[in-house]
Design a protein that fits this description.
The structure is a homodimer. Chain A is an alpha+beta fold and about 325 residues long. Chain A is built from ten helices and 15 strands. Helices cover about 35% and strands about 30% of the residues of chain A.
Chain lengths: ~325, ~325
């Protein structure tokens, strides 16, 4: 009667849910992008939900500032709005609270959520609180977009691939926290209090020069893979161009920091593609917003290639994925 | 350094979150009603989120049909839209999955969610899946209302109090399931597959005769208390008028079934108030939709009174509430 034990990835489970789903003409993007997009009378509404679970996405025993758990839960969800080029407007928060939680922690997380709402100029309009075996913060965001949002699907052959900010900082910070070592403030903030790139996403969309965009929450390779799959393209990644901090090179061995940069996840930077002719526009936006933007590769017809020191090799992409083990 | 062990109710925690929250003029109802309400260019958007957690809201060891866990998670959230008189349009689902969960259960719950979406003519536009120590289904609903929704705040002195359907069925069904006894189908369905009263809520709002409304998820007394608190009024409840099934009287002792009817929760019926002059309109709506609607009492200036066999006594309201025990 019982089935064999089996391991599922998040993407396989999502595939199961997507089965037999069909949409009305109002839903121009359903499950499968950073946000769902509803278009009604020329207006675009963005909808997304994200869950942050104790001992999966955060760990109370190593967290330096409990308030930041609330802030990060909001940033994570709002980062999906940034990845579509939208503006967050309203959020709903569902809190599942474990009984090992104390009153001070509850107040701190609640205050972090409200702090994030103020920071993103977003209104906390509703919520739900329940007991649970595991503390979890689920955030749903309702956002808007004054023109068509940017999807994962539009990357074109010969497009440049860009990424904002520095990579691998959050996972490097987490590694130091886990090892009970000193954590430089930049790495601690990257992990505990990431900032969603709302202004950048919105400006890129307004200029209408971006062919595809995603936020890096699953790691650079994992999220680039999403763009490639949804756009049905390949990529050539110049590994020497990947932006990170010198700090990582002094604190970690080469294979460690390269892993953080490629697969670290939790960075909440934007990864996007444009035509080569818009390269100067991208540099101008970078200067205007004072956000580093780096060209890291090219879209190709198919396959995944990594270039390092004039050598180009074909590789299989790998990235962090939640694995779900079912007992029976 | 550590604080005393303390117990919080859900309402006290919500109070903590509501502290220092202020809203833009677009948000005509924030935290504190069944849904948040955003008004923009004459249009009303309803927003709500609800979490259903394993071993708090459902129990895999006694559940007869796993698919219904998915259906109920959607019904619970959509019932909040019914309580405002709105129509659900889009839902987002966040699934936290425990490792003791099996593939068949995942498929069943996913299918129950999609079945509910079809039933309520609502589109599942986005989701999120994560691992967790406790399985949980969080549903956010985006609904609409073509005129001002019905709040909890408008009950007037001398208003009649009405309730739809029969009370206590879900909690009676749960009690039988827990006791491993046979469960009559009506009670099993009331517990495992409740139906949100969308058509009734919407028609009541359209007729513009309802002064306040709420759905009964916390039990009749608990939810009536919400209306009384938000409307700053009291009530006289005619206990002999409370609608339930004869079945409950044959299966349970008097104090048991009265407790189910008053405090059972999980009924998802609508509790509402109107002026006496609209009594015939209410009866007409009841006939039209083939949904029993019963007058169960009157709104008074203050206090809470129960009338039974011509005796009226003043009582303290009590209802099921999640209690949160903080260790330190």
């Amino acid at each position: 009667m019982t089935e064999m034990s089996s391991i599922y990835t998040e993407f396989e489970l999502i595939k199961e849910i997507r089965k037999k789903l069909s949409y009305s003409p109002y839903v121009i993007k359903g499950i499968g992008d950073d946000c769902a997009v509803v278009k009604n009378q020329g207006k675009y509404t963005l909808l997304t939900i994200d869950n942050m679970v104790e001992n999966i996405h955060f760990d109370m025993t190593i967290q330096k500032n409990i308030k930041n758990i609330g802030f990060k839960a909001v940033s994570r969800a709002i980062s999906d709005i940034a990845a579509m080029g939208g503006i967050p407007k309203y959020i709903l928060v569902s809190l599942a609270i474990s009984t090992n939680f104390n009153k001070t922690s509850f107040k701190a997380i609640s205050s972090g959520i409200k702090h994030a709402c103020k920071y993103y100029n977003t209104e906390l309009v509703g919520g739900d609180i329940t007991k649970s075996k595991a503390t979890a913060i689920t955030v749903a965001v309702i956002g808007v977009c004054d023109a068509k949002p940017v999807f994962r699907t539009g990357a074109l052959v010969s497009d440049n691939i860009y990424v904002s900010g520095d990579l691998g900082l959050a996972s490097a910070g987490l590694a130091l926290l886990k090892a009970k070592k000193d954590v430089p403030k930049k790495l601690l903030n990257a992990y505990e209090k990431p900032i969603a790139q709302i202004a950048l996403g919105n400006l890129l969309r307004k200029k209408a020069i971006v062919t595809s965009m995603i936020d890096i929450s699953d790691g650079l390779l994992g999220d680039l893979k999403h763009i490639l799959e949804e756009s049905n393209k390949g990529a050539l990644l110049d590994i020497t161009s990947l932006p990170t901090l010198k700090l990582l090179k002094t604190l970690f061995k080469k294979e460690e920091y390269i892993n953080f940069v490629l697969n670290g996840g939790d960075d909440y930077q934007l990864l996007f593609t444009t035509r080569e002719k818009h390269h100067n526009d991208i540099l101008k936006i970078s200067r205007e917003l004072k956000i580093p933007i780096t060209k890291i590769g090219k879209i190709v017809k198919a396959g995944f290639y990594i270039k390092e020191n004039n050598k180009t090799i074909k590789v299989a992409t790998e990235s962090y994925q939640h694995k779900f083990t079912f007992d029976s």
